[in-house]
Amino acid sequence: MEQFDGLRPARLSVGIISAGRVGTALGYALERAEHVVVACSAISEPSRLRAHRRLPDTAILPVDEVAGRAELLLLTVPDAELAALVAGLAATGAVRPGTIVVHTSGANGVGILAPLTAQGCIPLAIHPAMTFTGSDEDIARLPDTCFGVTAADEVGYAIGQSLVLEIGGEPFRVREDARTQYHAALAHASNHLVTLVLDAVDVLRASLRGQELLGQELVGDEPGGLAERVVAPLARAALENALQRGQSALTGPVARGDAAAVAAHLSALEELDPQLAQAYRANSMRTAQRAHAPGDVFEVLAETSQR
């Protein structure tokens, strides 16, 4: 393998296992930084199509051949498959000593790579703190993405930092013993935000359905309609306010201590969807705790939870 120039990696031959949303996006970004993705694995038809589209000059090969050709090997399989993949690679001896082995699992550090580390590989956990949908926006967002890096030593951290900086991201360190907590925070911020917003859109659709509003189209169930246009600026403003102003961004009936409004919301939502009402109640309770709401708000939330 070529030597490193200071903290910047030399041009590396990159292998990717597998050609999913994350792997192909990172492969594209690494090629843009003048590394060469020499091989990737792709089993499903969507993965093969994605590889051909994003990495048209890259050979699609079996896993062991991808590993054998790589100086930088990206393991971008789902978290549940990572341990078995590492064990299989170690058992076959497919990865050459000195290979930089990077996985992109948020919940795992470098410990899961121990079988390959024992064979002379350089272990790295580099997790993009970003959601990936398979669209071209995935690639466009990478330069503004922060990456959680865990390494076995300072050499590993230097390599991980350099790789992230090369693709335009911002690296930060995550301790090995903090990876699960770190991953929980990101799942809470992204996955649960999607659920919350889509629940709100569903309720708004129900409240507007069957009405023609000021000559606009009837409210439908397809994404991108009136309900989404109503929610979008409000949700974006709330998110920006939370990130920029912290606790003072809280507004609305819970923060104001308007117990009657909270009770009315819960009653209306219970009629529409009891499970959604339960989610609203749980979020209201957490909001009340953050806002130090008056006692009657907590009483309303406790009463409705016991019905």
Automatic annotation (TrEMBL):
Pfam family, one: DUF2520
Domain called DUF2520: residue spans: 145-286
Protein name: Oxidoreductase
SUPFAM superfamilies: 6-phosphogluconate dehydrogenase C-terminal domain-like, NAD(P)-binding Rossmann-fold domains
Annotated InterPro entries: 6-PGluconate_DH-like_C_sf (IPR008927), DUF2520 (IPR018931), NAD(P)-bd_dom_sf (IPR036291), OxRdtase/DH_put_Rossmann_dom (IPR019665), TM1727-like_C_sf (IPR037108)
Domain Putative oxidoreductase/dehydrogenase Rossmann-like residues, every copy: 5-128
